Amino acid sequence: MILEAFIVAFLSFFYLGWSNGKFDLAKTISVNIAATVIGGLLIGALFYLILPAYIGILWGWYGVIALPMIIGSVILIIMSSNEDGWGILIQIGKIAVVLIGFLIIITTGFFHSDELYNIPQVTEIQNTSAPNGIFDPIDTKHVRLVDQDLAYSLAHNIIGSDINNLGSIYEIKKEEIHIQMVKNHEYWVAPLEFQDYWKWDNRKTSPGFIMIDAEDPFAEAKLYTGYNMRYMPSAYWGNFLDRHVYTNGYSRVQLEDFTFEVTDELLPRWTVSKTKPTINNDGYIVESVISVDPESGKIEEYPVGQVPAWIDRVTPERIAKDYATWRGALVHGWWNAYGFVNIHEDVNELTTVTTKNGESQEMFFVYGSDNKPYWFSGMTSQSYSDQSLTSIVLVDARDPTRMIRIKMSGANEQGALDAVNSYFTNYPDRFGTAIIPYNVYGVLTYIIPVDSHTSSGNIFQAVGFVDAMSKHAVVRETKELALEEYKDYLATKNINKVALTSESQNRFLTGIVQRIGEVTQSGKSSFRLWLDDSDAIFSVNPTFFPVVSVTNVNDKVNITYIDTGDTVLEVGKFSNENVKARIGKDQIALDRETANLTMQKTENWDKQQELQKEIERLKGR
């Protein structure tokens, strides 16, 4: 590295000395020796500190030599006399070469917009009602109610109360708290970092990390100690994590997104993506993921497609954002999206969410129904200034070039956040935080935790369920209350909970009523039934199914529902074979819609014929 620094310094400060109109060899040699020695030391120090990646145009050297070349040339121009014409021309020529090189770099998108557009392998889904196949009907046991700010507050509480006084040496850094799925449960995980150089110099190792339950805002954070983590972002010299990886064979790749994760056995690891440009100095793709043991420093590399299941973040947020941006903007080329003429035909851009505390975010880390992590964002037309939604994008966080785009209308994340915040106009210290999309009974729904900010940190206050189509928000103190009222809202909007979900999620049951009772929540009534051979309780809305109000024990009933894994399941269709009541027009229309939509979702020919007969029968009612 030092030899490289001397070579770069010599090239950067190359100078021809002139005296009285004649070439002066002694002057030339003395100036170049001085420039090489001083520049070499400075550039060597620069290498050690910033760890430049040798990758991209000119094998990455452009980023190393550009700044010293320009600065050195300007200094030599100033030092030169009027007689040093050739030396000045050489310095000006070097500056021109560097500037032209940078021009090529910054115009990469202009020359290669089609290639950038096609890097992500996109699956387009035409669906204006629900993102089926990505988000299953909601399992209320796994809703993220703790945002990063609240996790940061909870982590600080636990480290501040530790009897070993760890808070005097170590700290939690908000930017290093990351969400992770550990044994099918979401947690925020944060390492204990050194507060400063002197604390590091005194201890040399970090004792562990903190895990915060992301699904339960009332659970205490847990401190895990007994480790000796030496390689950390807050360590120094050879123990500095980035330098440790860089100097162990990874100086000629781009290292991105250093993330602290734990295995299912709670073994701490640092993970980092190894990326490279494919189009000049742009069009980055992920080649592999590197895992670093913070205790031993052992480095393991996993190619994409062979990454262990415990690693959630293969795709860095920057690359996910680039892919989604290119796909939305470059549909008709660079000039249409970014040219001086305001064309912007079919251009879509990522929605930007700004919270009350002034923080902005475009991509959110979420988990789909396939248990895969994704980078999620809504997209809106560049020609609109409102909060409309044209589609949502999901960039696979473990399969970097895989992206799903679901075309649908509705409100974007900012609109959903504003709908929740409107509940708290009289409470300016309360605000919605993370915006996480879920499929709640077939409807794209944003679930938004609500925190209050105090001098001691954030405190959980409520949770909001927002219909992405209408921006209707239900905000209550607990997820159970919010979900119950949101179900009622869906019922009153004539949204059939079975029809809008994939066929594999539907459940049909005929049984004998063993128990029945009426419950009232938030001023609205529903009937709860327990049937024989069932381990769940079924909730029936009497607004849609009035026959439930005259249903008795031992009646034989038929129900359709979605098994979300909850104790209480919402019924999408209900009939009582012991009560021959007239079926209302609204119910007939709803049944027809159910049959039609269900038939559209099945690829089985026999099933389609059966459903077609059911539709004809319903037409005759």
Defining key terms:
5-stranded antiparallel sheet, 6-stranded mixed sheet
Shape: elongated
> Could you give the count of β-strands?
30
- Figure out the total of helices: 15
Biggest pleated sheet: 6 strands, mixed
Describe the overall structure:
The longest helix has 26 residues. Strand 5 and strand 6 form a beta hairpin. The protein has 4 domains: 105 residues, no CATH class; 169 residues, no CATH class; 162 residues, no CATH class; 117 residues, Beta Barrel (OB fold (Dihydrolipoamide Acetyltransferase, E2P)). The protein has 15 helices and 30 strands. By secondary structure, the chain is of the alpha+beta class. The chain is elongated.
Describe the structure in brief.
The chain has about 625 residues and is of the alpha+beta class.
